[in-house]
Amino acid sequence: MGQSMIDLPSRLLLNLAAWRNARNWRVAFSGGLDSTVLLHLLAHLAKTESLPTLSAIHIHHGLQAAADAWPEHCQAVCDALSIPLQVERVKVQPGASLERAARDARYAVFGSVNQSNDVLLTGQHRDDQAETLLFRLLRGAGVRGLSAMPAQRPLGQGTLVRPLLDVTRAELEAYAAAHQLQWIEDPSNEDRQLSRNYLRHQIVPLLTGRWPQAQANMARSAAHLREAQGLLDELAQIDLAHAKASTDFDWLGVPSLELAPLAALSGARQRNALSHWLEPLTRLPDTDHWSGWADLCDAANDASPVWRLADGELHRSAGRLWWLSGDWLRAPVIGGEWHTPTSPLRLSGNGVVVFSGQMPCGPLRIAYRQGGELMHLADRGHRDLKRLLNERAVPAFVRGRLPLLFRGEELLAVANLPGLDGNAQDGWKLHWQPTDEDQGLR
């Protein structure tokens, strides 16, 4: 018996089997057809099945006058089903695509409420999957984009699950009619200026008129592409494993990769591995912007090239790639006198410094490299700081923010660099915790 022959409640339970032990099931409830059917199905299953705690969440975007009545409608539906409803109002940032901005605002709320072992359930179905594939194909998406919508993915501290992806819109309409459900018709769904609506109302009916199985086949293609993306991800992990050798600078807490193992790969494998690595850190560049990667690789050995991306920068230094974002991209503000060296000194935009052992006598101050500094080493006399940093292969982006300890004009220590970070004879060291912000995970 094919899965489409199994009744809708049984199929839904089958698709949710892996999450039966979750703490909460929360339905993203717009009040439209898909989420109304999903909520109704779950409310009725909960009467005979032991399910996680069920609730609903409605996001009010306030983008059109008609929407003001929707929270009330959703509340009435939830009251009738005895399901608690949370209504969240969001402000949508105006931008190039209002649809995208509204979606971003919606998912930001979903992510913030989704705690550990929570599942957020959304009502997208097979027709949506086919439209997504078609829409992305027309925008020139790669394998990842053409995988369309995954049936599950991490969201917030929990999981987002789409349990109706193998159900057609027609099946949902039939269920709604059989149970006399009332739902909201969003006026914007009729606006043919919106690309998705144009595809839904104008293009897909033409395709299914000629090829009745078009949507099922497109959804199947999306599943094949998702499998292909899985293989690409596995390949990326293999390639990245070779580039993740540790360094003397792991204490920086900056994500980094060794360049040579990556540069030895074919161009396509380089881009695949790097996309996989960058994905949690930044919005990825489109095809045209990958020339920045070639420039980074091809720059002369003594250069310090930078590739600017949406949410940070990729720097090449000391034979490695370094992902910098947040405070790392801002010049640190010089701190000045360190009046109570017994307690840690917080540096503006540059973490914290602290002493261990017997402190040198003052007056002490923390400053940053300006150029021309000399340091006296017990066994080597006065040495140029630039040369000392070169000897230790200190990455270029760190040099201007390494805390330097001065007594008057005398350079006493360079934080964290073995041999330069204190005085072995007097038994003290200068420690630097570079930044206490989460490095870049968006």
Automatic annotation (TrEMBL):
GO BP annotation list: tRNA modification
SUPFAM superfamilies: Adenine nucleotide alpha hydrolases-like, MesJ substrate recognition domain-like, PheT/TilS domain
GO cellular component, as recorded: cytoplasm
Substrates-to-products reaction catalysed: cytidine(34) in tRNA(Ile2) + L-lysine + ATP = lysidine(34) in tRNA(Ile2) + AMP + diphosphate + H(+)
Top EC class for this record: ligase
Residues at which ATP binds: S30, G31, G32, L33, D34, S35
Subcellular location(s) of the protein: Cytoplasm
Keyword tRNA processing listed: yes
EC number: 6.3.4.19
Any coiled-coil regions, as ranges: none
Record remark on domains: The N-terminal region contains the highly conserved SGGXDS motif, predicted to be a P-loop motif involved in ATP binding.
Record-given protein name: tRNA(Ile)-lysidine synthase
Gene of this entry: tilS
